[in-house]
Specification:
Elements (H helix, E strand, L loop, with lengths): L1 H21 L8 E5 L5 H9 L4 E4 L2 H14 L18 E4 L8 H7 L2 E5 L2 H14 L3 E6 L16 H12 L4 E7 L12 H18 L6 E3 L6 H6 L4 E4 L1 H4 L3
Parallel strand pairs: 1-2, 1-8, 2-3, 3-4, 4-5, 5-6, 6-7
């Protein structure tokens, strides 16, 4: 597993670099978020030892023990709440799955950022909890730009109401809007996902013009099957699991 993981990481990194070159972008403008859902902490530790620093988890209840065990085994690594300036500054745990409001307190204690803020109500609760904890949580706003009924996220079709929601969230204390996240439909050809990535980038551009580029500089889009197309269309974060760790 160790040798295979090292090879898989190197191959994915090469593919990211090649996609960035095709788009005329720098490699360091794209963060690889390793999706570690269902994986034991030993594999996450090995991936960290092999150079990965950003990890994405989908479920709070699964992440509780995993992140705690991970940090216990890394010297000087503490939770984001107990030590806002962690000595392990390159380590970052992202919440990337749907976050239920009742799990928000645990998420604030566990994660360094939350990519899946999909409602004003959730953002407001996170804001209250972060102010209470004395921290500022970087967040991404999940947008359902494909309009699929099965997906979570803001649906920016009725722009007047959508912009009002974004204005409310940007003004909240305790959370810092850094950008947008989306999940493209599962399609046989990655090129079929390109319009979704274009739509998110164009949405970010409109929001940047209205609310400030500092709030919409990050685009988390693209997974194992389509991350290269996402990078070509402006992704600054790609969430990759299967290409690194194999089938679950």
């Amino acid at each position: 597993m160790n040798n295979n993981l090292a090879e898989a990481i190197a191959f994915v990194q090469e593919r990211i670099a090649a996609a960035a070159r095709r788009a005329g972008r720098k490699r360091d403008g794209v963060t690889l978020v390793a999706v570690t859902k269902t994986l034991p902490v030993e594999i996450v530790l090995r991936a960290y030892q092999l150079g990965l620093c950003d990890f994405g988890e989908n479920r709070v209840e699964e992440a509780v023990d995993k992140i705690s065990n991970f940090k216990f085994q890394i010297p000087n690594c503490q939770s984001p709440v107990s030590n806002l300036q962690s000595p392990v500054s390159n380590l970052h745990f992202h919440m990337i799955g749907h976050l239920q409001s009742r799990k928000a307190r645990d998420a604030v204690a566990l994660f360094d950022s939350i990519q899946s803020v999909d409602s004003v109500k959730l953002a407001q609760k996170l804001s209250r909890l972060c102010v209470e904890a004395g921290r500022v949580m970087p967040i991404l706003l999940e947008c359902n730009v494909s309009g699929e009924e099965s997906k979570y996220g803001f649906v920016p079709l009725k722009e007047a109401g959508f912009f009002a929601e974004i204005e409310t969230i940007v003004a909240l204390p305790g959370v810092r809007v850094d950008g947008l996240m989306t999940m493209a439909p599962i399609v046989p050809d990655p090129e079929q996902a390109r319009p979704v990535f274009v739509a998110l980038r164009e949405l970010a551009e409109r929001l940047s013009a209205r609310f400030g580029a500092e709030h919409f500089s990050q685009l988390s889009m693209g997974m194992t099957d389509d991350f290269e197309v996402a990078i070509e269309e402006g992704a600054t974060m790609v969430r990759v699991g299967r290409a690194l760790f194999g089938e679950r």
